[in-house]
Design brief:
452 residues, alpha/beta, Rossmann fold, 2 domains, seven-stranded parallel β-sheet, six-stranded parallel β-sheet, 17 helices, 38% helix, 16% strand, disordered N terminus
Length: 452
Amino acid sequence: MYSRKIVKREDYCNKDLMRILFIYPNPSNTLPSFIAKLLSIFSNSLIPAFKALTNVTPKEHTIDIIDERIEKIDYDDNYDLIGISVMTNQAPKAYSISDEFRKRGKKVVLGGWHPSALPEEAQQHADSILIGEAEELWPQLIKDKDNGKLKPIYRQETPVDLSFIPFGGNGRIKQKGINSAVAIEATRGCPHGCNFCAISHSPGRRIFRMRPMEQVIKEIQSIPQKYLLFSDASLTINTNFTKQLFKNMKELDKKFYCYGNANVLLNDEELLKLAHEAGCISWTIGFDSISQKSLDSIGKKTNIAEQYISVINKIHDFGMNVEGSFMFGFDTDTPDIFDSTLDFICNSEIDKAEFHILTPFPGTPLYDELEKQNRILIKDWSKYDGKNVVYKPMHLTADDLINGIQKMYNGFYNPSNILRMIGRNVNKGLFPLITIASISFQGLTYTIKKRV
């Protein structure tokens, strides 16, 4: 059974107001360019972790959010509690931010993937850390802070029961940006467990769970924005649930983006039909590699490389886009992987693509395997961003990987391809065009940075 120890508002004895600040650190030491900042302001969706914590924070407390990618931090502002969400490449910056607040006597809590994977490291920079999913831990932490009994560690021992998590905190949050799209979660967890995936290897995240359908629909109905971003690891894990969700969304007049697995999307036309009718604009698929040997080596059981073109064509046939994610640096990869992948992408007419260097995040089987082999070369966590080589590849050099990623961006984000992407989305609304402009600019910027 899942734990149900949600702290209720009536449990509070001390009703003193607290000002709470959530921070999403910018892992870079420099602010983004004006154009990148402008695009992020217009498309800046509410960070799912902060939305979830807001929903379980007693209403007498106020909440602000700073996304450091578009807003500077005022360390002298009068906050009672600071919560920082930390992915691995954000860790050095998050620790620096935390240290600055703690110098001023502020209480700082760190949570997220990285503190859950390396709690002893994170403890050195925080008054308290959250390990695992936070919705049941956070209210208890606030109560302890209120009573002057903040604990150094809060650990979630069992997966959170999503049916006990309230929703509707959007209106309480003060965050810069237009928030033209809203992130929403219908399910949580991924049972597939690819060996490189930090999400599925975070505590509790291998257990797949569904929110009550009526809660999801009520939340969608309460959202004024037209565009939704489903943050679920995959909406193809339980297709019966997803099909019912799409049926219920059909009359809600929303447009949305979601993640899915290639094998299901190829073989379930009913799902694709319902997705299109419900307002789906695009499916994001972790293709990861066009090499079946590489897919087999990482335990990617949902992908058959020779079926990729068929998957993309099938989704296009139902009027939706395909966004693909590709990684390079697997032990079976050789220098020709870049040319063959670029040929595949150009022939497939995929709508958007992201390219990453394989990164062994702490807490994953991949990290443990490479550590045992003494192949982890760098433990500067800021380099764990999919753009740097932090381990010793098997059949490639670091320069092979860096130059290969540059080749992918050069080849895909060229003017003619960008115009093609814009043409496919010109009738789908402002937000899709903004996302295309944003990712295209990132691709072009990446190329420029690598040239100088």
